[in-house]
Amino acid sequence: MERPSLEINLPDTHEEGKLYVVDSLNNLNKLNVCPDGSQHALDEEENTGDTGENTAGSNIRNQCLFFVTFILTLIVSLALVSFVIFLIIQTRNKMDQITSRLISDKKSIEELKKMNNMILKHLNQSGIK
Question: What are the TM regions of this chain, as residue ranges (predicted)?
Fold first, then answer.
């Protein structure tokens, strides 16, 4: 196999010939630089041309996708915040119930202490030991 020469002699040609040579050099550079998979993508890009329609369509599609993702994120965030607020309210209600039970139990314990003291006094006075 012959090794291709890296030196390229550019003869004096007209503008059209110069463009052909530059295009050939670009193609050669793509073959040397790009791996096999990316060369196919570059060929498709060249075939579509630079009309701007594909980029405009994909740009609008990307904006629409971003907008939908943003709206979904807001909805999920709102749902999570609502759930957290619901849990805070439920926890507050439970804490109020527990506090009221503790207060009533404290009153009951104080009453039992008073009754115990009265019984002890009565037993001490009656002389039963």
Answer: 65-89
